[in-house]
Amino acid sequence: MKAGLRGLADPGFGGVLPGTAVDRNVVRAGPLVPCKPSAPAYSLLPRESRAQKPGGRTIAVRKRSGETAAKEIYRHFSQSEPSLPLFARDWWLDAVSGPQGWDVAVVERGGEVMAALPFRLRRRFGFRWLSHPPLTPWLGPWIRPSAAKSANAMAREKDLMEALIDSLPPFDYFTQNWHHSRHNWLPFYWRGFSQTTRYTYVLPDISDERSLWQAMDKSVRGTIRKAESRFRLSVRSDMGLDTFLALNRKTYGRQNSMPPYSDALVRRLDQACAERECRRVFIAVDPEGRPHAGEYMVWDEQAAYALMGGADPGLRQSGATPLCLWHAIRHAATVTQSYDFSGSMIEAVERQFRAFGALQRPYFRVVKTNSRLLRLFL
Fold it and tell me: What is the reported pTM?
């Protein structure tokens, strides 16, 4: 919902990629390499616990105590892979879940990470849930791109996704919104998952400001001009997080609700983003210094995202929100390639994003309920 909003893994394993070995929730493709004496001790499952895939290659499962090896591998990988979406990076997950509040399934081949699926793991009403954390619009699987022919690339993707599924810990309920760049969820369907198609809106190329302005609906251009001329609003980026949080709470308050995240969580995430110079807060103010609306934007190498928004209900007619969004888009053009409005399925909000000239992009909400009891209530 865009109103104001624009885990620990237990060992889990099963049959996986042909010729692979699983270390808790890390899958290593290729022959099993004996551990060096200085390495943590591993224990192989009994021979009868091994399985075979077509072609006769053996699947073995390895376990070790302590933190999952997958998470250690993923942390190193996350720091060096620019194609990994912002919300899937280890520091982001640390900020929104806590360092011990998330884990990840990883598939390796030849020491290279081929696929990964981070997740938040928590207990709700005694049930084990795998999901994504608050303030994290998307997670889902990351698959290393392939230059192979379509049929071979899809077969490879199927194997990698199956390996990720097999590496997940036991769960009662799984739910994640996948990034819109992930188009294929069929291997999850074959494993009993279901999906609902949802939509976000994206400006795929923000390099030409003039073209962006012309692509807007004339009503949006008029509202932005009115905000600047009639209401004499200006947009500032130096007013601090407290001002934004107050606007954010007012937006939820107008709907008689509370933000689904705490101020402490936002501050922790803001600090992590500020340290990496990948966020900016835009506040529209009038000549009297009153804040009318605000937008909180984050970005990575591929896109900027409208993560949170807020506005003063008593000053809604000033056009401050479109003005803030326009300033955010213009700044995004100086740091990344595209702009993602991060939703929305709310009709009035969708209409506004569409009027900015943004293109509709479908994304998947992928779900699976293993608990029979939970199925009665979901």
Answer: 0.82
